[in-house]
């Protein structure tokens, strides 16, 4: 089956310096009293609302990280993923320099879950569970939280963490509130200007006998961002010190984001709360990729020249992702000690490519072709290499696709407050039903034996890494196939093998009890989840197409225990033991089978889900406004982890040279620690009392063993989890008063292994290099209501670099440039 492989990282070892962190924690002696509300462990993001977030930290039930709406507004972030990278334990996967997928404690997006207003967010991509949060504009968000330990009343389907997105409520403000922002940005890589406008309004109204009991809130955001990147990549095609092929790519991108939300809250005199939450987001991604690639007749080293087949190609497509979510629910107290809560939710995600050029290729043969640098292997050649007349049209491939992912859910919770041996206690129990349906449909056409000429090219290349040569005119390519009969060029295998329909129904029930024993709060409970999975697809076996269908049914009993012990007025020890279950992603359990001679690729719908026992320990102190220090340690024992493998030479694949699929491993483990520190230096004399500092880091490591057949021999190897960086860190230094504020933020992610080359050849593994992104933000309050902001993203012009085996050998190098933003915001409250 022709989907992207899932690879596993193998980063370098890191020694944990525990003693320094512990000494730093216990050096804090200035304590403040705390209320007796429910306590949660939270590690707060570096935001202007640090003090507010730290107070919410004292009213939580799980170990989590939080960032709030006003804090998001003070950071130079375009979407929810970029806002989340500021908090402890979180890093992001980037696409063209923009944050997309969120990784928690070194675990990739497919091992985490995203909810909006309490309902699951399905994934627009056909092969993933992880949600690309770049589809969600940050302006629509009231708060973002990453829940790292799960109580029984929460879905158990995350290993790293659950990202909870909450949208605006009128009860977040007193009376009428509205805000509007006009922003312009400049991208120096392509010298493009991009507009952005956003706004929100809320108010409370009195209906019936109540006073300010109905809240209405609305938000709207629009952005049209134009930018680009320059790239040179080999894909790791090194034979020792010699290179087999290299490619230069020029990207020109336009991304349009539209987001809207409309929320209603009703709080009657009876003490209940009822709400309707709606959210819509559309992300339109228009991309043009020009490429020139050289395949050398014989592998050659830098500085050498030789014969090569050169391909100039164009990819031009427009994809639109949409997410919509509707949640209605509420809670009501009755009989003094009982509370009932209920919610019904519907969410839908989709990704559609209505039709685009997935590859228009022109080819030519050239002599004296080479490259000069192993890290940036830009092609060097004679003048005829840059002459459009030397290339002949080979093929034009046209593709369209659509993926939909829908989820319906309903849940009911009951709470009973009571006294147990003179101690306050709460019994909570309930259940949830979730039904999910994911569909994918892809169509492909390949046009051959067409005529081409140098008129199909133009000379508008703006590639910065070296000489690029002529680029392909997408309008003329579309004209060539416009009058042709597409039925004659339809590609059956690629049009059918990735088509599927999957249904996943989950029924859950739980019970939990909370009791306060003086300084100790104890939460114990049990959750049950039953999963019914069905998948329908196709098998393509040497031109013969047959339908496939699979069913899988399993259940889990998931106990948990949370405790918090108050060591002193503002010092806390927190611990949790939880059990979670993560289902395979939709590439891993895909029902398609592709067989071509002695090569095969297929999914495994009968894979077992990952099962994890999680242990968390936290220690924290608070010592003033927006000031805290915390240390957290975690350990995860994982069964049935999933990895990509080759089954050739085993079972029914004995006579195959290649049989690529997925497999359950036995045991794996993940462990690490987090350290968080933030402080507002109010005790210093002016102007130093405006100083604000923050730092957090996560050190993590995972271990697992995989095996595969190679030349009739069973080989095994120790690996780490996908995309895991041993070290993730954030640092922030700022200063602000009532009129002015500046902030410098840094985000660091250490190297990680991106692709596993071969089980017996770790030297062919591909690593992602470490990255440091520096951002600057500032604001001036022109009046009580009017604020001017100036931000700079990626000050240091950080690039993206992957390497094969060692840093000396390129797998991919990409540059993005720096972005500058100027915004004017008006607030009324």
From TrEMBL:
Belongs to the TonB-dependent receptor family. Residues 295-317 are annotated as: Disordered. InterPro entries: Beta-barrel_TonB (IPR000531), Beta-barrel_TonB_sf (IPR036942), Plug_dom (IPR012910), Plug_dom_sf (IPR037066), TonB-dep_rcpt-like (IPR039426), TonB_rcpt_bac (IPR010104). The keyword DNA damage does not apply. It is a multi-pass membrane protein. This is TonB-dependent receptor. Signal peptide: none annotated. It comes from the Bacteria. It is found in: Cell outer membrane. GO terms for cellular component: cell outer membrane. Keywords: Cell outer membrane, Membrane, Receptor, TonB box, Transmembrane, Transmembrane beta strand, Transport. Its main location: membrane. CDD domains: ligand_gated_channel. PANTHER family: PLUG DOMAIN-CONTAINING PROTEIN, TONB-DEPENDENT RECEPTOR-LIKE BETA-BARREL DOMAIN-CONTAINING PROTEIN. The keyword Iron does not apply. Residues 306-317 have a biased composition (Basic and acidic residues).
């Amino acid at each position: 089956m022709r989907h992207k492989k899932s690879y596993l990282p193998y980063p370098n070892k890191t020694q944990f310096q525990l003693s320094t962190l512990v000494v730093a924690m216990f050096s804090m002696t200035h304590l403040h009293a705390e209320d007796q509300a429910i306590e949660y462990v939270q590690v707060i993001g570096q935001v202007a609302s640090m003090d507010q977030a730290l107070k919410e930290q004292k009213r939580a039930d799980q170990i989590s990280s939080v960032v709030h709406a006003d804090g998001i507004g003070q950071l130079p972030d375009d979407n929810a993923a970029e806002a989340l990278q500021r908090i402890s334990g979180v890093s992001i996967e980037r696409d063209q320099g923009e944050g997309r997928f969120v990784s928690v404690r070194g675990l990739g997006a497919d091992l985490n879950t995203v909810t909006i207003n309490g309902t699951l967010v399905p994934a627009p991509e056909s092969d993933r569970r992880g949600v690309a949060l770049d589809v969600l504009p940050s302006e629509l968000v009231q708060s973002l939280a990453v829940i790292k330990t799960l109580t029984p009343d929460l879905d158990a389907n995350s290993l790293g963490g659950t990202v909870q997105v909450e949208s605006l409520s009128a009860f977040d403000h007193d009376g009428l509130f509205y805000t509007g922002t006009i922003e312009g940005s400049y991208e120096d890589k392509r010298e493009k200007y991009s507009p952005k406008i956003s706004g929100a309004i809320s108010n409370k109204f009195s209906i019936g006998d109540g006073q300010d009991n109905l809240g209405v809130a609305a938000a709207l955001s629009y952005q049209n961002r134009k930018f680009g990147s320059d790239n040179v990549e080999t894909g790791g095609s090194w034979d020792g010190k010699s290179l087999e092929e290299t490619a230069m790519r020029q990207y020109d991108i336009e991304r349009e984001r539209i987001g809207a939300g409309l929320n209603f809250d009703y709080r009657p005199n009876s003490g209940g709360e009822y709400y309707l939450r709606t959210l819509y987001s559309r992300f339109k991604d228009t991309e043009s990729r020009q490429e020139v690639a050289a395949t050398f007749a014989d592998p050659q080293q830098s500085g050498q020249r030789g014969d090569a087949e050169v391909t100039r190609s164009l990819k031009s497509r427009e994809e639109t992702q949409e997410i919509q979510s509707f949640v209605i629910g509420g809670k009501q107290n009755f009989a003094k000690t009982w509370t009932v809560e209920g919610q019904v939710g519907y969410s839908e995600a989709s990704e559609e490519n209505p039709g685009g050029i997935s590859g228009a290729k022109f080819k030519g043969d050239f002599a004296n072709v080479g490259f000069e640098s192993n890290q940036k292997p830009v092609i060097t050649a004679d003048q005829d290499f840059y002459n459009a007349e030397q290339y002949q049209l080979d093929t034009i491939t046209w593709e369209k696709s659509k993926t939909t992912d829908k989820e319906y859910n309903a849940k009911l919770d009951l709470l009973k407050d009571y006294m147990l041996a003179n101690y306050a206690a709460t019994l909570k129990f309930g259940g949830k039903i979730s039904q999910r349906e994911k569909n994918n449909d892809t169509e492909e056409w390949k046009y051959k034996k067409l005529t081409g000429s140098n008129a199909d090219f133009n000379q508008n290349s703006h590639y910065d890494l070296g000489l690029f040569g002529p680029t392909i005119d997408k309008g003329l390519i579309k004209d060539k196939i416009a009058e042709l009969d597409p039925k004659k060029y339809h590609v059956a295998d690629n049009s059918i093998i990735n088509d599927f329909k999957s249904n996943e129904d989950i029924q859950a029930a739980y019970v939990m009890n909370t009791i306060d024993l003086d300084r100790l709060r104890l939460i114990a409970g049990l959750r049950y989840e039953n999963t019914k999975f069905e998948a329908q697809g196709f098998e393509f076996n040497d031109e013969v197409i047959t339908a496939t269908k699979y069913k899988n049914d399993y259940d889990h009993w998931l106990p948990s225990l949370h405790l918090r012990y108050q060591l002193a007025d503002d010092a806390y020890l927190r611990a949790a033991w939880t059990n979670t279950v993560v289902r395979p992603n939709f590439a891993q359990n895909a029902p398609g089978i592709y067989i071509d001679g002695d090569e095969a690729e297929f999914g495994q719908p009968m894979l077992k889900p990952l099962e994890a026992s999680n242990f968390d320990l936290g220690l924290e102190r608070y010592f003033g406004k927006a000031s805290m220090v915390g240390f957290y340690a975690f350990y995860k024992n994982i069964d049935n982890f999933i990895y990509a493998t080759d089954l050739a030479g085993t079972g029914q694949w004995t006579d195959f040279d290649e049989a690529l699929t997925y497999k359950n491993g036995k045991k794996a483990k993940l462990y690490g620690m987090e350290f968080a520190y933030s402080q507002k230096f109010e005790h210093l004399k002016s102007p130093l009392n405006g100083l604000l500092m923050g730092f957090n880091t996560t050190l993590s490591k995972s271990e697992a063993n995989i095996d595969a057949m190679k030349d009739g021999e069973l080989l095994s190897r120790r690996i780490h989890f996908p995309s895991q960086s041993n070290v993730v860190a954030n640092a922030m230094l700022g200063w602000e008063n009532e009129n002015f504020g500046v902030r410098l933020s840094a985000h660091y992610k250490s190297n990680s292994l991106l692709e596993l080359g071969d089980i017996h050849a770790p030297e062919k593994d591909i690593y992602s290099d470490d990255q440091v992104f520096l951002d600057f933000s500032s604001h001036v309050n022109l009046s009580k209501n009017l604020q001017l902001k100036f931000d700079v993203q990626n000050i240091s012009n950080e690039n993206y670099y992957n390497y094969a085996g060692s840093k000396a050998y390129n797998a991919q190098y990409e540059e993005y440039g720096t972005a500058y933003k100027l915004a004017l915001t008006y607030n009324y409250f």
